[in-house]
Amino acid sequence: MTGLGVVSPVGSSLSAYWAALVAGRSGFGPPTFTETGKNKTKIVAEVTDFVASDHFDARALSWLDRVSQFAVVAARQAFAQSGLSSGGETGERTAVIVGTAAGGQGTAEESLRRFYTEDVPRIPPMTIPKTMISAAPSQVSMTLGLKGPTFAVSSACASSTHAIGQAFQMIRSGAVTCALAGGTDACITAGVTRGWEAMRILATDTCRPFSRERTGMVIGEGAAIVVLEALDHAQARGAEILAEIAGFGMGADAGDLTSPQADGMARAMRMALADGALAPDAIDYINAHGTGTTINDKLETAAVHAVFGDGARELALSSTKSMIGHALGAAGALELTATFMAIRDGIVPPTMNYLGPDPACDLDYTPNAARRRPIRAALSNSFAFGGLNAVLAVRQFAG
Amino acid sequence: MADVTSLVSEVIAARMRSVDRSVRLSDTLDSLGLESLDVLEIAFDLEQRFGVEIPFNANTKLEFDTVGDLVQAIERLIAEKAEKAGAR
Which helix (H) or strand (E) element contains residue B17? Predict the structure, then answer.
C-alpha cells in the first residue's frame, strides 16, 4: 500500500480526513437538495468542501457525474502519493478497480426526471456514459493513463471492500503489478433519500453505532482510492510502504436481502484471518461495519464474539460511520483508509455520539474519543445488503 | 441571421481546447479539434438554444463539415419551423 486518496464529508484530502476522525469531528448536516419538501430526513453526510470546477474544466465536467469526479480526485491524490508513473509497462500492469453501489444516479435522475415530467424531449447526450456503473473506473483510467484491467465492482455497501480485495488477489496472483482500487458513491438525491426513508432505517437524530438509543444510519457520500503494489515492485523503486494488506475474506449469507446474519459476518472475518495467516490474537483493532442500525450492530457484535472468543474483549472496535455516515459503495475504502492510518499512527479513531451500552453490544467501541494504542494488525468489515460480506485484514509493514 | 452565426460560434468556442482563436465560418469542425463527444454536446446545446431538432446520426458522415454549414442548417431548420407554425 503506497498511496491513499480521499474525498469525504469531513475533508477531501487524506490529512484533513484523518485529522477529523481523530478529533471526532462529524460531517453531518441537513441535506442540500432543494426538492419539494417531501423528505423527512434532517441529517445526511454530504461532501460540502468539494468544488468540481477546482478540479475539472467545463468540457470534462460535461461527462463526469459527481460520482466519477470524486473517484478521479481521490485517485489523483493516491497516485501522486505513491509516486508511480503511468508510462510503459507499469501503466499496462496497473489495474483500476472501483466499487460503487449507485453509480451516476444523480445524472440519471436529473435527465430522466425532466424527460418524463416536463415537456423536454431531449436527454443530454452524455447521460448514458455518465451514469454507467463503470464510468468511475473508466474515468480514472483515462485521467491517469493506466491501461491495466479496469472495471467496476458492485456489491452495495461492500463494493469497495470487494474492489480492494479483488485488486489484492490480482496482485498476489501475478496478474498485475499495481492497482488503484477503492470506491465512490454520490447519490444523496431527494429521490434516493426518500427510498432510504421508505426502508425506515435512517437515523432520526444522529448516527450512534453500538450505542443504546441508536436510531439508524446516516447516508453519506465520498470516495477513497488506495494504491496497492507488489512488495518487490514497491521496494525496487524505493517507495514508502504505508502498510500491507494481509488477507481478504468474502462470502454471502444466502439468506435475507436486507437483514444481515452473524454467521456470515463471522465466516468472512475468519476467512480474512486465515488468508493472511493471522491468529485472532494478532488483531488489535476492528473498523466495524457499524451502521448504527439496531440489527447490524447487534449481529456484528455477536460475530466478533464468535470469531475472537475471550479475546473479543481485548479488541478495540470503532465505527467511523459515526462521523462520515454510510458512504455506501465508498464506505469500505474510506474505512480501510481509516484503518491504515490507525495502524500507522497507533491511534484508534472513536465511535462518536455514544450514549452508553446496549446490552446486546458489549465490546469496547472506543466511545466518543480517540485512543492511543499500538496496532499490529486490524480488520475492516463490510456487510452489505444481499448478505454480501467482505473483510480485509491489514497489518503494519515490518520492513 | 447574424445572431445564429454568433450563437453557433459561441457554443462551438466553449468546447474548443486545441485552437486558441475565434471561430470562422470556413473552419471545419475537425480542424477546431472537436471530437465526436464534443459534436454531440454542441448539437444538444444548439437544439436547446434554437428550439430545433438537428437530424444527424453519428454513424454517418456529418452533413456539416464547416461552421458555416452548421449555421446554414440551423437557419434552414428555424425557417422550416416558422413555416410549419405559420401553416397551422
Answer: none
Phi, psi values for residue A246, rounded to 5°: -95, -35
Compute the count of residue pairs across chains A and B with CB atoms less than 8 Å apart.
19
The pLDDT of residue B34 is 87
Among the listed residues A325, A332, A266, A253, the one whose alpha carbon sits nearest the alpha carbon of residue A292: A325
CA–CA separation, A70 and A16 (whole Å)? 16
For residue B57, give how far its alpha carbon lies from the nearest alpha carbon of chain A (Å). 12
For residue range A2-41, what is the model confidence (pLDDT) as tens digits? 999 999 999 999 999 999 999 999 999 999 998 768 899 9
Q: Which residues of B touch A56 (CB under 8 A)?
A: none
What residue of A is the nearest CA neighbor of B38? A59
> Closest by alpha carbon to A347, among A330, A362, A366?
A366
Q: What is the percent of chain B where pLDDT is above 90?
A: 32
| Per-residue pLDDT reduced to its tens digit, A212-240 | 999 999 999 999 999 999 999 999 999 99
Q: Strands (DSSP E) along chain A, which ranges?
A: 3-7, 94-99, 150-153, 178-185, 222-229, 244-252, 285-287, 316-318, 347-348, 371-372, 377-384, 388-395
Which stretch of DSSP H or E encloses residue A187?
none
Mutate to test the interface with A, among B11, B12, B40 (most CBs of A within 10 A): B40
Nearest to A59 among B17, B43, B47 (CB): B17
ipTM: 0.75
Cα–Cα separations (whole angstroms), residue A212 to A293, A357, A358: 11, 6, 4
% chain A with pLDDT above 70: 100
* Chain A residue numbers touching B53 (CB-CB < 8 A): 121
User: Residue A326 carries which DSSP code?
Assistant: B
Report, as residue numbers or ranges, the catalytic residues of A. 157, 289, 326
Reduced to 3 states (helix: H, G, I; strand: E, B; else coil), residue A36 is coil
All residues of chain B having their beta carbon less than 8 Å from the beta carbon of residue A115 are none
| Prediction pTM value | 0.93
Q: Do B38 and A59 touch (CB under 8 A)?
A: yes
The type of residue at A324 is I
- B17 lies within 8 A of chain A by CB: yes
Closest chain A CA to residue B54: A122
Cell 454467521 belongs to A263
